[in-house]
Design goal:
Strand content: 35-45%
Mean pLDDT: 82
Number of strands: 10
Helix content: 25-40%
Structural class: alpha+beta
Order of helices and strands: EHHEEEHHEEEEEEH
Largest sheet: 6 strands, antiparallel
């Protein structure tokens, strides 16, 4: 069931124009929205690293850009009386955004039992996997009736739904390995669908705000799990 629908009757020529306009959203605009979000709400600044907890990343570096977006048409069906299209902009966030969020949240939350659990030992954490991809999706249908058309679209922002995977090593005073393992935290992000009188830009920024909050929540869940394993 669609949460958002636009229905209109227009001459055929305007139907063609409407279809063209629906494909105007491109990678440049999505990357611009990401940059605007993180200029207004910058990622959490990384707290000073401690000697007892060190965070590293096994993820490939993606440079200085905050995001990289590619566009593809996953489905286009231009029949005589019925058109269907699905334009998808897939945005990959720079993993450093989530890693900095993870590190800052971890060190702030470590006082809730983790530091006491370490008891002077050293903890090495490796970010092996973390959510960083979302899709801005524009899916629509057009039915031609003589010289008019009826069309409806569904616009949404869809998270990739990738779990957080963190490897850990607990080292003793002489750098001997006391324990090692890996913890997986499920991604709970949900798809956001564009509602009436809302803009796709604001919906994307809402997703990014929820994404940041989700990374922080997953990090706290990770710390709670880690305390029980150490």
């Amino acid at each position: 069931m669609l949460n958002f629908a636009v229905k209109r009757a227009l001459p055929v020529v305007w139907g063609v124009i409407a279809l063209s306009l629906s494909s105007c959203l491109g990678p440049h605009k999505v990357n611009k929205w990401v940059a605007q979000h993180y200029s207004e709400e910058p990622p959490l600044s990384q707290r000073k690293k401690t000697e007892s907890i060190v965070v590293s990343s096994a993820l490939p570096e993606t440079g200085v850009n905050l995001s990289q977006t590619r566009k593809n048409t996953s489905h286009l069906l231009p029949l005589l009386f019925y058109w269907q299209f699905d334009y998808r902009n897939t945005c990959t966030l720079n993993p450093q955004i989530a890693i900095d969020n993870f590190t800052s949240t971890l060190l702030a939350y470590a006082s809730h039992g983790l530091k006491q659990k370490l008891n002077g030992n050293r903890l090495e954490l490796t970010v092996e996997q973390i959510p960083q991809v979302f899709v801005v999706d524009d899916k629509g249908h057009i039915i031609w009736v003589i010289v008019t058309m009826v069309g409806w679209e569904r616009l949404s922002v869809q998270p990739e739904q990738k779990d957080m995977v963190i490897g850990y090593r607990l080292l003793g005073a002489n750098n001997e390995e006391l324990k090692k393992g890996s913890i997986t935290i499920a991604d709970q992000e949900k798809t956001l669908t564009l509602g009436m009188f809302k803009s796709l830009r604001n919906l994307t920024k809402q997703h990014l705000s929820e994404y940041d909050a989700n990374i922080s929540a997953m990090t706290r869940h990770f710390v709670d799990r880690l305390i029980t394993e150490l």
